[in-house]
Amino acid sequence: MRIEAFFPYRLAVVAEAFSRQLVAVYGREYGLSREEWRLLFLLEEAGSLDSLQLAQRTSLDKVQVSRAASRLEEKALITRTVLGSDRRLRNYAITEAGRDLFRRAFDQVGARADEILEAMPARDRAALERGVAALDRAIARVTEPETGHGTAFPRPGPIED
Amino acid sequence: MRIEAFFPYRLAVVAEAFSRQLVAVYGREYGLSREEWRLLFLLEEAGSLDSLQLAQRTSLDKVQVSRAASRLEEKALITRTVLGSDRRLRNYAITEAGRDLFRRAFDQVGARADEILEAMPARDRAALERGVAALDRAIARVTEPETGHGTAFPRPGPIED
DNA sequence: GGGCAAATGTTGCATTTGAAACAGTTTTCG
DNA sequence: CGAAAACTGTTTCAAATGCAACATTTGCCC
C-alpha cells in the first residue's frame, strides 16, 4: 500500500501542516509554545482556573502544565498561587499583560486559520467539521474502556460548567 | 471563545489521539519511532529508493531521514549505500528482516486504525476523508506561493512514479 | 488521632528534537 | 581547467521532551 493512501498518515501530515501554519504566528511572532498558547487560551476565557479544572479542559499532562505555567509566570502573563483549601493545588489567573498579548495573538492566529479554512468550499469545510467530530467520538468509544489518556476534550456527560 | 470550540485545537487534539493509538502498536510493540515507521512503510512498498525519491515522498526533513535511517540500519532493517552516479546520494533498501517486521507491525497497526475508523458511521467516515483531502488542498493553495515546506504529500503534477 | 496509601506539582536525568554549522560532492560559469 | 556556488547528508550543540523519582499535602482506615 502506498503511504500516501494510508489514512492515518494523511491525517497526521495534514494536521501537522495546519498546526505549523498557526505556530508560525503565535510561536514566531509572540514567542509562545503550543502549551503556553493553550494555557493562555483557557485562561483568557475563564479568567482564572484551579489545577483540577485545568486538567479537565486541557489535553496536557501535569508536567507540561507545570513547565508552561512556569514560563508564563516568568513572562508575567499569568500568576500562580497555592490554593488555601487544598495546598496541593494551584490557582492560575491571567494578568492584564497576558490578556493583551493573547488577544493580539489570537486575532492573527484566528485570521490565519480562517484564511485556510475559507479557501475550502463550504461543503468540504462542513464535511471536515463533521468528520473530525465523528472521529473524536469513535476514538473515545474505542478507547473509553481502558483508562489511559486516549483522547481529549470533555465529552458530554462527565462534567458541566 | 472556548478552546474546545476552536477548530484548529480540535483537529490537533484528535489527530494526536489517533496517532497515539497507532504509535502504541508500532512503537511499544515493535520499537519503531514515527520516522522509522514511515521510512519502512515507503521501503516496503518500493523495495529500494534513493534519497531524492525519498525526499519527494516523505514529509520528513533531511535530518530526520538521516537519523531514522541510521537506527534502521543498526537494527539491520534497511541497508544504506552510497550511490555511484552521485556520491552525495544514498540508496536505501529494505532487508528481509525489515520486511518481516514491517508486515507484522502493519497488520496490527492497520487493524487498530480500522477498528477506530469502523467505529464511525460510514457517512461520517466519508465526510472525514473528504474533509481531510480538501484541507490538504487548501493548505497547499494558501502556502504554495512561499517556499517553506508547508505541507505534505506529492500533489498531482510535479512527479509520477 | 496516627500511620499508610493516594493525589498533586515539581525536579533530575537521559533521550529526542531542531537549527545551524560542517564536510564531501557536483555543477556552474568565467 | 579551475574557482566558486549549490546541493546532499551528517554532526554538533542547545533547547525541549518524556519518564521516573521526589516532596508535599490530603484522605483513608484502624
Structure description:
Two copies of one chain form a homodimer. With 161 residues, chain A is mainly alpha-helical. Chain A has a single domain (3-143), classed as Arc Repressor Mutant, subunit A, CATH 1.10.10. Chain A is 60% helix and 8% strand. The first copy, chain A, has six helices and three strands; from the N terminus they run H-H-E-H-H-E-E-H-H. The first copy, chain A, has helices at 7-26, 34-46, 51-57, 62-74, 96-117, 122-143; strands at residues 48-50, 78-82, 90-94. Chain A has a three-stranded antiparallel β-sheet. In chain A, strand 2 and strand 3 (90-94) form a beta hairpin. In chain A, helix 2 crosses helix 5 (96-117). The radius of gyration of chain A is 18 Å and the shape is globular. Chain A starts with 6 loop residues before the first helix and ends in an 18-residue tail after the last helix. The model of chain A is unreliable at 147-161 (pLDDT under 50). The structure holds a DNA duplex (30 and 30 nucleotides). Chains A, B: Residues 4-144 form the HTH marR-type domain. Chains A, B: One of its GO terms (molecular function) is DNA-binding transcription factor activity. Chains A, B: InterPro entries: HTH_MarR-typ, MarR/SlyA-like, WH-like_DNA-bd_sf, WH_DNA-bd_sf. Chains A, B: It comes from Paenirhodobacter hankyongi. Chains A, B: This is MarR family transcriptional regulator.
Features:
homodimer; 161 residues; mainly alpha; Arc Repressor Mutant, subunit A; three-stranded antiparallel sheet; 6 helices; 60% helix; globular; disordered C terminus; DNA-binding; WH_DNA-bd_sf (chains A, B); MarR family transcriptional regulator (chains A, B); MarR/SlyA-like (chains A, B)
